[in-house]
Structures are given as C-alpha cells and as structure tokens.
Specification:
Elongation Factor Tu (Ef-tu), domain 3, 6-stranded parallel beta sheet, 6-stranded antiparallel beta sheet, 2 domains, alpha/beta
C-alpha cells in the first residue's frame, strides 16, 4: 500500500484507478466488504485500487465551532495501520480544512477525482454527500461519469441480525460494554495503541505498576476498569486496565489509560503497545482515599484473572 497526502505527487497508474471515499472510522466489517468490492472492481477494470480517507473527519472539523464533539474509534495512525492489512494499492489521505471544505462538488469531481486521480470507477453509497454545502451526491457522480468516462457503483451493505453495520453502531456497542458483539462486527477486538510513558509511579507504590498511555485525541468516552489483552510485539499478556481521569488521586482533565499487566516485570517505557478490550469490570469511581483505592484494585485484578481463566476453559 502506498500512502500519499499530496495529489500532485500521485503516480497515476496508466490504466487509472477505482476509488472509494469515506472516514472509515473503525475499519469494521462493513468497510472491509467495501474494500473487497473495490479490489474486485479494480481487477475487472484492470486498474489500481485506491481508498480516499478524509482527515480530519468533517464532523470533527466543524465541531470546533460548537459544543458537540465527534468521538473517534481510531486515531489516524491506527486507521492507516488497519488499511495496510486490507490489500489496496493506494491510500490518499485527503486533508479536510477551511480551503478544501469550500471546493464545489463539480470541482471535486473534475479536479480531484478525474484530473488528479484518473478514476475509471467509483464505489460509493447512494447517501454519500460531498463538496461545498454537501451539494454533491450519487446522481451527480453518475451524471459526470458519462461526461468523463468513469463508472459509479453502489457500495454493498453489511448487516447483522437486521442491523446495518456502521461506525455509529460500533460506538453504541462499545459504550454499552458489548465487547463480544463489537469484536464480531469489527472483525477483531476493539483496541487502543500508544507509547508507554513514565507516570507518577503511584501504581508501583500501591503494588500494581502500570503502563501509562495517552489514548489519543477525541476518543469515544469509554471509562472504567476493563479486562484487556496487551500486545507487545509478538506477545500477548492479560491486563487490568483503567481508562479515566483518576478522580481519587488528582482528577485530571485529560483521560489516561493505565494498564496493569498481570505477572509482568519488564521495563517497557517508550514501547508501543496495543490494548485490546475484552470485558468491562466496573465504572470509574472516586474512593475515600488511597487505601480504599488499593483494596479495590486488588479486587479488580482478581476479577480480571477470573475472567481470563474462565475464557480459557
């Protein structure tokens, strides 16, 4: 997969490309079905496959001007790592900002899709909107397809038990602590990746040292204590993970992920880890003091052990 951010530097394939476009937050099975459709159509047209990822999300961009905040499933780094595994030829990270948000739908088609990327086909949902004031739609793409000689195909829909799988549906399952279902519709456990940073060492003084990770900007508001698996390179470990603002200690405004890896004593500062969520143990609580917190952490750790012991039977 070749990633590019500057369309002027895109090495346009001789036979053009088939593209799909979206935020692809979560890269769930619905998205993966679209990518399979994309690759199949690219083979039929003897063209390259290309995914256009809009970054930041338009909802996130416009939320700067109001109190609503868009909650991400993935950081852009996580999303690109997931796209690396789906087997497309190119990914174009399209920068959404004040300038690009003003591009008309017609210019979007001609200047970006046709002249910039040389599309021969486009796979898109019939509810897709694009261009200034969201005036571009599926019908307009079809109309211009006749003019510029490209085909438009509707995306395949992925449903499970009567529910159309979407990023919103994934968020709902995670916030409802339905991690088994979220795993099924993502095609993998929901995870957060980050670099282990040195914290205040409070966990170590309490007997439960933690790997501290910044979960990333604007995450969905998962809060509480969770049974997780932590991936370190090629190894997986069981962990009790707290995700929250540490109300008993200092009540931080920012959210911190603290992973206590069971039976683990290695120094992993500066290492990149992936934390995969399996079950919620309890909500985030404020305790009367450090002693009460220490007691509860011990209870949490034993509950995490019990969960994994049962899961392995």
């Amino acid at each position: 997969m070749l990633l590019f951010k500057d369309i002027d530097k895109f090495p346009k394939p001789q036979n053009g490309c088939v593209v799909t476009i979206g935020k692809f937050d979560g890269v769930h099975l619905g998205h993966q079905l679209i990518f399979d459709q994309l690759k199949s159509q690219a083979v039929k047209l003897d063209s390259a496959s290309l995914v256009i990822v809009i970054e930041p999300h338009p909802e996130e961009f416009f939320a700067r001007h109001n109190d609503r905040q868009f909650k991400r499933l993935n950081t852009i780094r996580e999303k690109l790592e997931l796209l690396e595994t789906v087997g497309v030829d190119f990914v174009y990270q399209f920068n959404f900002d004040e300038i690009t948000s003003e591009i008309s739908a017609e210019s979007y088609i001609k200047d970006i899709l046709v002249d910039g990327l040389g599309i021969r086909g486009m796979i898109i949902g019939d509810d897709f909107r694009f261009g200034k004031d969201r005036l571009g739609d599926y019908s307009l793409l079809e109309e211009y397809g006749e003019k510029y000689d490209y085909q438009v195909f509707k995306t395949a829909a992925y449903e499970r038990n009567g529910h159309r799988i979407s990023s919103t549906f994934v968020r709902e399952q995670l916030l409802g602590s339905n991690f088994d279902l979220a795993t099924q519709i993502l095609g993998r456990p929901y995870s957060i990746t980050g670099t282990v940073a040195r914290g205040q060492q409070l966990g170590a003084t309490l007997g439960f040292p933690t790997c501290n990770v910044d979960p990333g900007f604007n995450r969905i508001p998962l809060r509480g204590v969770f049974a997780c698996e932590v991936n370190l390179g090629s190894r997986n470990f069981k962990a009790a993970v707290n995700l929250g603002s540490r109300p008993t200690i200092d009540g931080q405004k920012t959210v911190l992920l603290e992973a206590h890896i069971l039976d683990f004593k290695e120094d992993v500062y500066g290492r990149l880890i992936e934390v995969m969520f399996r079950k919620k143990i309890r909500d985030e609580l404020k305790f009367k003091g450090v002693d009460a917190l220490k007691t509860q952490i011990g209870i949490d750790v034993e509950e995490v052990r019990t969960f994994f012991d049962k899961d392995s039977v």
